[in-house]
Design goal:
The chain has one domain. The radius of gyration is 13 Å and the shape is elongated. The protein contains 2 helices and no strands. Helix 1 runs antiparallel to helix 2. The chain is mostly helical.
Length: 56
């Protein structure tokens, strides 16, 4: 069950990252696009770290 939660969080982070990258690629290079990319990366990293930590 825990693995499903971490995988879901990782997928949400990936979706936020991709949307932010798309906004930067085709948008006006606003700060919101950069924040979306950074937020997606942080969510993916945290979910991976917590999954590894839960295996101990």
């Amino acid at each position: 069950m825990i693995k499903i939660i971490f995988n879901t969080a990782r997928n949400i982070g990936l979706g936020i990252f991709v949307n932010g990258a798309f906004a930067l690629q085709f948008g006006d290079m606003s700060a919101q696009g950069y924040w979306a990319v950074a937020e997606g990366i942080v969510i993916m990293l945290l979910s991976g770290y917590m999954e590894l930590r839960s295996k101990k």
